[in-house]
Amino acid sequence: xxxxxxxxxxxxxxxxPLYVRIIGNHAQRHLSRPHGYPAHxxxxxxxxxxxxxxxxEQEIVLSAGELLLLPADTPHEYYSIDPDKEWNLGFIGFNxxxxxxxxxxxxxxxxxxxxxxxxDQLWEHLESLWHLLHSSEEHAYWESSKRLYGILIGVLExxxxxxxxxxxxxxxxxxxxxxxxxxxxxxxxYNERLLLSNVARTAGYSVQHFHRLFVANFxxxxxxxxxxxxxxxxxxLLQEHPGIAIEKVAERVxxxxxxxxxxxxxxxxxxxKQYLRRD
Length: 279
Prior knowledge:
InterPro entries: AraC-bd, AraC_XylS_family_regulators, Homeodomain-like_sf, HTH-like, HTH_AraC, HTH_AraC-typ_CS. Keywords: Activator, Cytoplasm, DNA-binding, Transcription, Transcription regulation. It comes from Candidatus Cohnella colombiensis. This protein is of the alpha+beta class. It has helices at about 100-105, 120-135, 140-170, 170-190, 195-205, 205-220, 220-240, 245-250, 255-270, 270-275, and strands at about 1-5, 20-25, 30-35, 40-45, 50-55, 60-65, 65-70, 75-80, 90-95, 115. A hairpin with a 3-residue loop joins strand 5 (about 50-55) and strand 6 (about 60-65). Helix 2 (about 120-135) packs antiparallel against helix 3, helix 4 (about 170-190) crosses helix 5 and helix 5 crosses helix 6. It is globular.
């Protein structure tokens, strides 16, 4: 086990485009962060299973050999779901001017469990990075930035490999017909609590298979697609009805008001009220 390590970058953050903020691995206990964590996080499960609850709604089960990328400031909690088996969870929290562009490149991997073919190698990189930072020498922070970049590029390669594999497996005609049915369902019921299992069944696939195919076709998860659709409709409502109450907009798109405001600001960089006041 690698104890939790808070990286002290000896004031090098202003020079490093990527830097590690926290790193470690241990038998994970129940942890709740209602306001998120102020750094992007990469989680790796080496043994056992755990569940992440994102924004109080989305559930993600993370099993052995899988990774999860979680953007900074995303409300979440996580805990083991196998009481008789230890959940061995590794994590890297990172920041820097290059962090956001890197995550944008990996948008298909955000907030979903991703199986990793070269998991053992990725885990070795985590352990190597921990030992490097544990030395607390100044050169270690420069070197850790290089290694962190390599880790993220490796994760990006996983995204590319998954996309290519899925696209080579199915004919585009079959996917287009199946997914048009699923998209119609989403657009007809975007303001309701849509179960992914129901949407997947409409397209004729299992939930996991549908999720992978959806990402390969649309470049985002079904949940992200629904969220973007809700945000676009919310903007349309704000533009067409300047005096509309924010609570009414949230209700129309099927979201709790506080959650709607948080997602709107994350999407457009401004609150709905500020958007209404724009000239």
